[in-house]
Amino acid sequence: MPTLTEKKPQRPATRAHGRPLPELIFGDLWEFDPAPETADPKLKARYDLFIGGKFVAPSGGKYFDAINPANEQKIAEIAQANAADVDAAYAAAKKAFDTTWGKMPGRERAKYIFRIARLLQDRAREFAVAETMDGGKPIKEARDFDVPMAAAHFFYHAGWADKLDYVAPGRNVAPLGVVGQVIPWNFPLLMLAWKLAPALAMGNCIVIKPAETTSITALKLAEIFQDAGLPAGVINIVTGFGDTGAAVMGHPTAAKVAFTGSTEVGKIIMRSLAGTDKKMTMELGGKAANIVFDDAPIDQAVEGVVNGIFFNQGHVCCAGSRLLVHEPIAAMFLAKLKTRIRTLRVGDPLDKNTDIGAINSREQLKRIETLVAAGVKEGAEIFQPSCKLPTKGYYYRPTIFSGVSMSHRIAREEIFGPVLSVLTFRTLDEAVEKANNTAYGLSAGVWTDKGSRILKMSTELKAGVVWANTYNKFDPTSPFGGYKESGFGREGGRQGLLDYCKLV
Ligand code: NAI
Ligand code: MG
């Protein structure tokens, strides 16, 4: 039976454009039987560091817990690398670069990268379940997005490895040597693939550190490197916290460092490396605007806005965390959005029906709560559906703030949670002005029927990616990266490869 969960709210008074107001549906969320994914994630009780092609115990003997944020249970132990371990990882990478990988023809390197991609596809379900258990994202995302996209990145870059003469027409390219990489917890396996695949194709060797809350799929991928026969030391994985990350970024052997994470840490790294000759790329935060004009395909736009912010619990640097909606349709659009988010299923990430899984960590949940409290205090109007949340684990209801102004913290700061701030605009210029009025510039979305308006907006918006009549679409061929405090350098496509080579 459908359950009535809410009192019927007032209908909005305005009738936009003479269109009928959307049907508000209440209590229409049918309970489904649980549909848990059952594939065995094949977790080890304890994960060591992956250095020189082997799993090795951390020299300090320390391990930390990997927690499943959906139920707060410990699922494995992860080695904590210290500076000596990072040294060993760089030494292994340097040796591999000098003796095997750096000398190997691209067409030979390609075979290994193709093999990694295929082995990942073979074990796709197992990886999807491990990713969901370690990070909290819904299984349908891990299964349909993270794992296939990670494999796609390896396939795409494997295809480049024997065609590097075409990366910079008229110039020759050469690998940089050893590169250091640090990645965040929102797309653990996918960010790993984004970082590793272009570096490998170019002939570099790697030391990489996953985020402390999501190390497992990286270490599972190390099993695949072994199965693929990847020469020892080409990829080294050191796990640990911020200090381990700092040791990876600051190591003298690193010819280039690549970081994805918070703007705050990105600035710390940039400051610490100023004056060195290391190459750097940074992919940092975002505060993207989804801009909906009155001629947009409305239902499609509602889906796009929902996907833009509630996808992966809003743990997305390019999340459409601000909605800029054209004033004539604002009331109608907001009503439709509220109706839609009432039907989102929040809960067990392993359930195939779940739309919104667990927040990645207790710290992140607290950060979201703090910013939402600030929004309420500053006078924005909050809407949250009254869905039931599991009693154990870290969960947050999808949240919409309306009546937001540009000075509110929720309009300026990255929340990194399922929280949408709604603002309105009257003219195209006002939309551009508001969308660009942020320290960030990673992505934006435009919803309109008019092609010329899309072209105009994509020129005016200061964002690395502008999606038109869609959102959160990715492809290994298309470069991704930011303007302003969202960072610099590109990942994906030919541009991404250029960031892992020198021109000779
Ligand atoms: P963070 O930037 O601290 O963590 C990202 C990675 O950097 C992790 O692997 C971490 O261990 C490492 N790290 C931390 N301190 C470091 C240092 N001094 N040197 C080198 N590496 C270091 O992000 P955190 O604390 O997990 O999240 C805080 C906020 O950052 C989030 O609420 C969100 O707003 C934003 N964020 C943005 C991401 C993005 O993709 N743009 C990803 C993760 C977080
Ligand atoms: Mg941090």
Characterization of this structure:
By secondary structure, this protein is α/β, with parallel strands linked by helices. The protein has two domains: 46-284 and 486-503, 3-Layer(aba) Sandwich (Aldehyde Dehydrogenase, Chain A, domain 1), CATH 3.40.605; 289-475, Aldehyde Dehydrogenase, Chain A, domain 2. Helix content is 37%, strand content 17%. It is built from 15 helices and 20 strands. The strands form five sheets. Strands 14-15-16-13-12-17-18 form a seven-stranded mixed sheet, with helices on both faces. Strands 9-8-7-10-11-19 form a six-stranded mixed sheet, with helices on both faces. β15, α12 and β16 (419-425) form a beta-alpha-beta unit. α2 (106-122) packs antiparallel against α4 (139-160), α2 packs antiparallel against α5 and α3 packs across α4. The longest helix has 22 residues, at 139-160. The chain is globular, with a radius of gyration of 23 Å. The relative contact order is 0.14. Bound molecules: 1,4-dihydronicotinamide adenine dinucleotide and magnesium ion (MG). The site of magnesium ion has 2 residues, from loops.
Note the total helix count: 15
Q: Specify the CATH homologous superfamily of the largest domain.
A: Aldehyde Dehydrogenase, Chain A, domain 1
- The residue fraction in helices comes out at 25-40%
Shape, principal axes of CA atoms:
globular
Query: Quaternary status of these chains?
Result: single chain
For the biggest sheet, the summary is: 7 strands, mixed
Summed up, the domain count is 2
Are there runs of 5+ residues with pLDDT below 50, and where?
1-16, 20-26
Structural class: alpha/beta
Strand residue percentage: 15-25%
CATH third-level topology of the largest domain: Aldehyde Dehydrogenase, Chain A, domain 1
What small-molecule ligands were found?
1,4-dihydronicotinamide adenine dinucleotide, magnesium ion
Task: Give me the CATH architecture of the largest domain, please.
Answer: 3-Layer(aba) Sandwich
Would you report the number of β strands? 20
The residue-averaged pLDDT reads 94
Distance between the termini: 69 Å
Radius of gyration: 23 Å
Strand order of the main beta sheet, please? 14-15-16-13-12-17-18
User: Tell me, what is the CATH class of the largest domain?
Assistant: Alpha Beta
